Amino acid sequence: MAEKEVKLMKGNEVIAHAAIRYGCDGYFGYPITPQSEVMETLMELKPWETTGMVVLQAESEVSSINMVYGGAATGKRVMTSSSSPGISLMAEGLSYLAGAELPCLVVNCQRGGPGLGTIQPSQGDYFQAVKGGGHGDYHLIVLAPNSVQEMHDHVALGFDLAFKYRNPAMILADGAIGQMMEKVVLAPQRPRRTDEQIKAECRTWATYGKPADRERNIVTSLELQSEKMEVINLRLQAKYKALEENEVRYEALECDDAEYVIVAFGSSARICSATVEMARAEGLKVGLLRPITLYPFPTKQLAELAARGVKGFLSAELNAGQMVEDVRLAVNGKAPVEHYGRQGGMLFTPDEVLAALKDKLIKK
Amino acid sequence: MKETLIIAGFGGQGVLSMGKILAYSGVMQDYEVTWMPSYGPEMRGGTANVTVILSDRKISSPIAHEYDTAIILNQQSMEKFEPLVKPGGVLIYDTNGISRHPVRTDISVYAIDATAECAKMGQARLFNTMILGGYLKVRPVVEMENVMVGLKKSLPERAWKMLPQNEEAIRHGGEIIRKIR
After folding, report:
1. Which three-class secondary structure state does DSSP give residue B140?
2. Which residue in A284, A288, A291, A251 sits closest to A271, CA to CA?
3. Alpha-carbon gap: A8 to the closest alpha carbon of chain B (Å)
4. Which residues of A42-56 are buried (b: 16+ CB within 10 A; e: fewer)?
5. What is the pLDDT of residues A284-323, one digit of tens each?
6. Whole-model pTM?
7. Is the pLDDT of residue B138 over 70?
8. Most buried pick, A66, A168, A229, A330, via CB within 10 A?
9. How many angstroms separate the CA of residue B51 from the nearest CA in chain A?
10. Of residues B40, B61, B62, nearest to A119 (C-beta)
């Protein structure tokens, strides 16, 4: 195929296309604004007639995440998507998936909270995605797309990382990225993995039927003997350490000579990239550090910027100040770290971020 | 080339689909494109708006705080968006239902009586393409042949029988738009 397939699509629609083209085996979901186009698009595309991918509307988010658990336990590439209140309902399941070390993909197209909140975009679920959400010492792999193209690309990246580390991965998008249309280049169709491939790749843990030549695989997060449960926890922590060492992804925009650095992810990072343009036009040396992986977080990169002498950091988020805590930990007192945000579904504009940067950092 | 456009009016006027036609037309012209809608309950009877950006370079923010052009289709949107047109920019409005006309003198102002024209033709559904035609006359940011492809691509197949009428509405919109100042 010589011609690249350039399409104009919403972020939510592209998740559906990317999942099918990646060779996803199953999607289980329940509708909620502003992410309903994910399942709507899957239902329109009818992948069960082409690739054999299962698409099922469950009776609730609790069901869909547990269907994901079941599918993942067999070594299949399965996923779900929802928006903030629905993700809260999945919290128990996410902890179980992490505890049982099951790979899967979860998409959160965030809306404003707390509670039912609003259907407009927000980044108020950063803590929930990055610090837990469910109980216990666990991490999700968290990706933060800032464009419709990255919504597409992060489906494959999320599944690949999830299987590489046997850990659930989350795409932390928001209503702005989900509802926005942009140009996107779709990946070529990949075949779904065959049963033989799954047996070969997931032999040590997946439950596809017990062959005579290996022990039973048991998928569980339960271990009542504390000595053994601690060993499991230590193994999880070693995995997280490997993730932190090997899988940090970020984009640095105009950071090389920057005196002030804005830290922003997802839709806010898009807005803040225009803030950088405006600041540079005024002769202000401002850069943008955009974490692409929120977990693992680009701690080292921020520490290096602080050590290099950056005079101040502004964490611009569509929330009351969540990622700013991780920025402060990374900067570790070497420079002031401030937060600027809007809440409740409100977006900030590039000039508002610039005004906040001047007010909170540059004028001091 | 960079055009940052806001189209604002009531839900049901075809605001979002007008933006979509323009976005598809931009894709046909190899521009970078963003289409950022207001969504949700605003769609049902309240105000609806969409920001469309066309550019020959990568688009940083899909959210703008000022616009090169504003297409304004109700009074609420006039209050909200007239002040946000860049100095030297363009404001296009349908006079129907507007109680306070634009007052700014540092921008170009155009009026298009598309509501009245569509009512005369008995074709309310051609309203948004007629407005689009007026806009493209004033701001020819995309070639007309690309607009026609964009129009087809943005419509579901069942609506393709309406293509000739919509093409005609785009042309007619270009004829009836008039400069106020």
Report:
1. coil
2. A288
3. 7
4. beebebeeebebbbb
5. 999 999 999 999 999 999 999 999 999 999 999 999 999 9
6. 0.96
7. yes
8. A168
9. 10
10. B40
